[in-house]
Amino acid sequence: MKAIRYILFSTVITAGLLAGCSKSFLEREPQSTLGEAQLTNKKGVGVLLVGAYGALDGQDFNGDMINLSGGSGYAVSPDNWIYGSVCGGDAHKGSDPGDGPAAMSIALFAGNPSNGFFNDKWRVNYEGIRRCNFVLHLLAKVKDMTEDEKAEVKAEACFLRAHFYSDLKKMFNKVAWIDENTASYTNLDPNEYKQPNDKDIWPQIEADFKFAAEHLSETQREVGRANKWAAMAYLAKTYLYQKKFAQALPLFEDVIHNGHNQKGIPYGLMEHFHDNFDAFTENNKEALFSVQFSANDGSGGTGNANQGDMLNYPYGGPFSCCGFYQPSQDLVNSYRTDANGLPFIDDFNAHPVKNDMGIKGALDTTNPSVFVPDDGNLDPRLDWTVGRRGIPYLDWGMHPGQNWVRNQGSAGPYSPKKNIYMQATQDKYYDGNGWAPGNAINYVLIRFADVLLMAAECQAQAGDLNQAQEYVNIVRNRAANPEGYVRLYKDADDPMGGYTDDPAANYHVSPYPAGSFQAHGQAWALKAIYFERKLELAMEGHRFFDLVRWGLAPAELLRYFNYEKTITSDIATANFAKRNEYFPIPQRQIDLSVKDGKPMLTQNPGY
Length: 607
Hints:
By secondary structure, this protein is mainly alpha-helical. Helix content is 37%, strand content 5%. The protein has helices at 10-17, 36-39, 42-54, 81-86, 101-107, 116-139, 147-172, 202-215, 228-241, 245-258, 329-334, 382-385, 408-411, 426-429, 448-462, 465-480, 516-520, 522-536, 543-550, 553-564, 587-592, and strands spanning 91-94, 287-291, 324-327, 386-387, 415-416, 430-431, 438-439, 443-447, 594-595, 598-599. The chain has a two-stranded antiparallel sheet with strand order 1-3. α3 (42-54) packs antiparallel against α6 (116-139). The chain is globular, with a radius of gyration of 24 Å. The termini are far apart. 54% of the residues are buried.
């Protein structure tokens, strides 16, 4: 089954839908080589809908590394690596502290409303919203489609629009709702798009996802399109963010027990954890909805590759750029396990994992005394998530330590791993047509493990601690299965590569014993679920937003800063206050929202 090709959009109406510089993002009338009348038909709205999907990655298909707001792709990456993982304590910004100052200020929670990254993120999401709105605007006038066909297209457009709005909502909170009925698409009055951000938009997001869940097909004709189950999971997640656990739970349960992917295969966990981060095995039974990427697709550039992570490769070695997105010691320590294979939920930093800070030189395989990796009990997910010295870096050989790190003293000794392409398949999935790497590894917005853990959270909130534990243990059992990490093994006779039955580290992880959650009570059970999300979903852009919705961000991030700054220098001045639970409304957007002498958009408290 072929994947939806986002690039089709650009060949038809790119000129009319890309951002201008001097107007508010939603003021521009969608015009191009094809006018509205020519697009008001089944084929026209179909192409426009593909264009709405194309906005998911935030990129402009023009052969350059330019995002839809005119900036750089890493500012608007759909995996939210800066806003979700760096700000959540999964990782450091990385590289040198002076490299990428806009990102560094965000990592320190010192970003102000004039930081261009916030404006980029705002504009890219509203560009996606505008494309969805134009589809819905034209759809009402189309004559050559059945009502069922119209309902399917409307459901896809509503799904995508709700996704873009939910991203804005969790980042900025105070967001203006603009839909296909807000303003006319002819005789455009710019003031009609200047709407206030003084109302909660969760109800509208709910309504869009609910319509999508009710009208989308269970399977789709192309991989990459949203189906009923993806919409249902997203609706449940929307309820979860509002603490509407009773409404979220039956939706999660339906997805878990009845959902299936585009090939009719029931959703479930892949046997190999890394299959979720390998272009060769993507669009699998664990992926409910993904941003689709491609490499070497004949476009002449990396516009369809994963540009959002183009900086996030080890510095040096076989990779061309750039040493950003370095996992934190706090995250690494979280994977320590006790004699029973269980995590140290409350005091993991009291059991630190050995690192190679300050140890220079290449990995000396003939003299292991130079640096011997930690020999204590570890969860194997650590080494599918973090690159560390003396452990196989996928199939690229042993991670050599400081030789692949730009500035250990600033951001620590580790490298990211989930976004790295395999050496064996790089000819197909690595794209070197730009100044920094691109690859074809999809970003999974919602995967089945995420659904299981969100369902566990709802079950715990409802008081069914045994069912909550069962869902957590399904996730832990995958990690505990040796077949799930067999490819991480190193060959003692070939220490720079190869895989046998000799584990790369002392892996020991187990499910929670029967009755553990019930015995410890609801508060402890929730703590265990929250910690499992940290382990399973690390470096996937979720952590900061989870901490905020749990009400744990101030305490947890201050704890993180106090520990991590004893190891690295980059976050020495970091601080977190209540206002930082949401990012500032971009000042540029406030300035553009002036109507009758008064801005319609108001700033978040504390900025």
